[in-house]
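Q: Hand in one record:
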Amino acid sequence: MKKIAVLTGAGMSAESGLKTFRDAGGLWEEYPVQQVASHEGWLADPALVTRFYNERRRQLAAASPNEGHRLVAALERGYDVTVVTQNVDNLHEQAGSSRVIHLHGELMKVCSSRDPYDARYIRTLTAADCEVEPGTLAGDGSLLRPFIVFFGEAVPMIEPAAEAVSQADMLIIIGTSLNVYPAAGLVHYAKPGAPIYLIDPKPVMAASGRRFRHIMKGASEGMRELAAELGVAQ
């Protein structure tokens, strides 16, 4: 069975009503990035950061996967698919994708602030119970923090993501500017000759030097076009 790697960014979830960070009207205009998404911001005001991610979870609980998410999941009917996402939402999983690598963490999880990757203290929240009271402690006695890769922190899932891309017979990139590293560097791992499709309504400068086909449409419309070409129905 042929392997497909799908790399998704904020544009994938924008149609589901989740605000992007960088676009006009995005979250960075409302909140300084260093205040809510950096290790320094967490140390300076963990209560503010906790409330910020509570708000993000409430928005996610009210959102649903869009057609683009569902069509990515539908690719599994004919291909061995790994989704590598820069998004922290779980909409790919909700849509039915069975193998999802989250580069930047997972919004619906919380963890120890002493050791975020100690599996004993990683807890998955539910849509019905998605808020954390500021000051709540993890099992090791440290503050419970969002299971998010803050700016300046290592991206531990980049290695399995690179492995998935390197093994893929086709790479599909959806809703990302390819400007955010290390995720943008994943294109370099694509096999020589493997077709690369980029679905994004905006012009994108791909620094990889690789040839790709740009479908200048949103996530759902672009995936509809590509899925038809690949003979995959929703």
In short: The CA atoms of residues 169 and 193 lie 9 Å apart. The chain has a mean pLDDT of 90. Residues 46-61 form the longest helix (16 residues). The first strand starts at residue 3 and ends at 8.
